[in-house]
């Protein structure tokens, strides 16, 4: 892949720059890569492009027939209390 990375000058509030540098250091990223990540996320959000969340698949197990009808509250309570 061949692409050109442009260079530009941004005017950033001093405190925001300090915060960005701290975050970049904590993530072990360059300031440029962090700002690029934030810009990319912001542009996607602005454009309405949202990544689809991964489908959650939970493991299931067959546990045999239920010992009590959970729809019958009295039988359920009796079973839970060991009667």
Structural features, described:
- By secondary structure, the protein is mainly α.
- The chain has a domain at 14-47.
- The chain contains three helices and no strands.
- The chain has helices at residues 14-27, 31-47, 73-80.
- Helix 1 crosses helix 2.
- The longest helix has 17 residues, at 31-47.
Tell me the layout of helices and strands.
Elements: H1 14-27, H2 31-47, H3 73-80
> Average pLDDT value?
85
- Give the amount of beta strand, in percent: under 5%
Number of helices: 3
Report the biggest beta sheet as strand number plus sense, adding barrel if it closes.
none
Helix content: 40-55%
pLDDT < 50 stretches: none
> How far apart lie the N and C ends?
71 Å
Q: What's the Cα radius of gyration?
A: 27 Å
N-to-C order of helices and strands: HHH
Number of strands: 0
The helix/strand class is: mainly alpha
Quick synopsis:
With 83 residues, the chain is mainly α.
């Amino acid at each position: 892949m061949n692409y050109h990375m442009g260079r530009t000058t941004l005017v950033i509030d001093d405190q925001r720059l300090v915060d960005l540098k701290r975050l970049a250091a904590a993530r072990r990223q360059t300031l440029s890569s962090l700002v690029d990540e934030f810009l990319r996320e912001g542009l996607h959000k602005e454009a309405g492009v949202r990544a689809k969340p991964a489908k959650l698949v939970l493991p299931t197990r067959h546990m045999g027939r239920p010992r009590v009808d959970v729809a019958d509250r009295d039988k359920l309570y009796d079973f839970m209390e060991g009667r």
